[in-house]
Write a structure and sequence with these properties.
By secondary structure, the chain is of the alpha/beta class. Helix content is 37%, strand content 22%.
Length: 184
Amino acid sequence: MKLIVGLGNPGTEYEKTRHNAGFLLIDRLCEKLDVVLDKNKCRALYGIYRYKGDKIIIAKSMTYMNLSGQAVSSLMHFYGIGVEDLIVVHDDLDLPVGKLRLRSQGSSGGQKGMGSIIQQLGTSKINRIRIGISNDRSIETVDYVLGKFSREERKILDAVLDKGSDALIYSFDHDFDLVMSKFN
């Protein structure tokens, strides 16, 4: 069993904001796999995709970003999933829009949701897909991440969401190191 979790903030006021890039990638994955996120448990909205006799849980954390670790650890505990079978998808201010970066470990890089997950799980060895949202230092960080993508950025982001969802699908059959080498 695997768990794929996208990070973001719940609520219509946060839809399609930069900070919800993880949710956007989960949405694209669900479109490709025809999965509906119809379960609401463990502070997460999720669906189950059956693949070669295995379950792949695809989820969005329904806590606010800074408390994402609560939802992730609850889902892992409820389903008995080990950290090696977890992939977290989140935004990254330090990467340009259009850039994906896959990592199997590392610090939170200042991303509060990832920091919460690392704290809750007690390890930084967590598979992750980081989606670049760039950074505009002339705007307060909180205002920037809670802002929406420009029309030009949305065009770039569309291709990134396809590539990221392809990487997640590829991970169903491959070790994350191989996924990183193919999609980084």
